[in-house]
Design brief:
Layout: E1 3-4, E2 11-12, E3 16-18, H1 23-35, E4 40-43, E5 58-61, E6 68-72, E7 77-81, H2 86-96, E8 98-99, H3 111-116, E9 133-139, E10 145-149, H4 154-160, E11 169-176, E12 178-179, E13 182-191, H5 192-197, H6 199-205, E14 208-213, E15 219-228, H7 239-263, H8 268-277, E16 282-287, H9 288-292, E17 300-308, H10 312-323, E18 334-339, E19 354-362, H11 368-379, E20 384-385, H12 395-401, H13 405-415, H14 424-430
Parallel strand pairs: 3-5, 4-5
Antiparallel strand pairs: 1-2, 6-7, 7-11, 8-12, 9-10, 9-11, 13-15, 13-16, 14-15, 14-18, 17-19, 17-20, 18-19
The structure holds flavin-adenine dinucleotide (FAD).
Length: 431
Amino acid sequence: MTWQNWAGTASADPARRYWPHSAEDIATAVTTAAKDGLTVRALGSGHSFTAAAATAGAALDLSGWSGIVAADLDSGLITVRSGTTIRDLNAALDALGLAMPNLGDIDAQTISGAISTGTHGTGAKLGGLATQVAGLELVLADGSVVSCSADENPDLFNAARVSVGALGVLSTVTLQCVPAFTLAADERPMPLDEVLARWGEFTEDNDHFEFYWFPYGKNALVKRNNRITGNGGPGEMPGWRRFFEYEVMENAAFGTLCRTGRAVPATIKPLNRLAAATLSKRSYSAPSHQVFVTSRRVRFVESEYAVPREALLDVLAALRGGVTRLANPVMFPVEVRVAAADDVWLSTAYGRESAYMAIHQYVGLPYRAYFDLFESIATSVGGRPHWGKMHTRDAAYLAAAYPRFADFLRVRDDTDPSRLFANPYLEQVFG
Ligand SMILES: Cc1cc2nc3c(=O)[nH]c(=O)nc-3n(C[C@H](O)[C@H](O)[C@H](O)COP(=O)(O)OP(=O)(O)OC[C@H]3O[C@@H](n4cnc5c(N)ncnc54)[C@H](O)[C@@H]3O)c2cc1C
């Protein structure tokens, strides 16, 4: 059965599939595949735009290996099986009065796929999901099951938190969670020039700040989410309004605009301006994961780079100038987020305060020239591509972009000398 990712940008025909239900099952699958000369990849939920999970060898489907293994409510340390989706994780944490301190835009990913590719949300003082990992258990190429944390096998821990699955198959992930919290969400259109003028202020003054900018529109959609305690905040958004704003406007109506633009490309720029002009103001409060996560039913392709935060305005100005000269117009908005510097060797925010710029195009519309333009701008300031989003960087570039790249490769040589976990994408990025 052919495997395909969410965006339809990668597909593969695994020679064999396994459905493990325990760490022992994972170890058996790994050693059996190795004995039969097959390479091995763990499948998440296929939400990477790159072919990170693709394999012609043995594919491990971990969807049956899900749920909480251990929960310490005093410390907030929660251990989950590696195939747990973020949606199921959020529900389980909610029931325990806990939450993840920060999340990305969607919850369909597995926790393992998300951390392995450096998935992140936004927040100047917060790191990506891998920074919330306190311990890992993984099955190595020889079938051994090892644990690692800051105190136990620290090099393996530093390498495995973001590894694109190159070191082994994660069997469990231990997360440092926080008490459940409420976010007050404020989403409103604002002239892009005002957003850029107040970029530093918005970044510093909000727990979670991001904005979306339609490349031919004058307005950006600014999202500011801040923690509140007690009964303060604007209150929940009525169900009908939530349905209208997020399902109708952001999915159904936007999907219709995209299909129109794809059928008649000359309409894309005016439709893009229309989408920017019809952005509405929304204020509400809700449990954190309900604010972080939105549904994304309109399919797109995406590239994203982390750049030094101080370079963001120059990067955006260069993209803004270049996008008007593209032969094929762009339908989807640009998304800008921030993250704190962290210490995870292959985290896109390793060692530097970062801004993330993500560009998208509706599926089926030409994107190559746009993505090339963006990549040339982002790499000119030492940008680091998201491991799960489209880019053309190779190991030579990435070695210069990541101070601990050689250390990561050393751990890979130690744990997987015969490259059991290889695939063409890993050859591109790790050599
Ligand atoms: C609509 C959409 C919205 C998104 N929003 C965001 C966002 O807000 N922020 C962000 O940073 N990214 C975002 N992404 C990207 C996404 O979070 C990542 O690509 C993530 O990896 C997807 O997780 P997955 O479970 O689908 O993993 P997959 O894409 O299936 O796999 C990713 C990698 O993880 C490896 N892997 C999976 N399970 C294991 C395991 N048990 N052990 C070892 N390796 C494993 C795979 O082999 C592969 O290399 C988005 C993607 C989409 C399609």
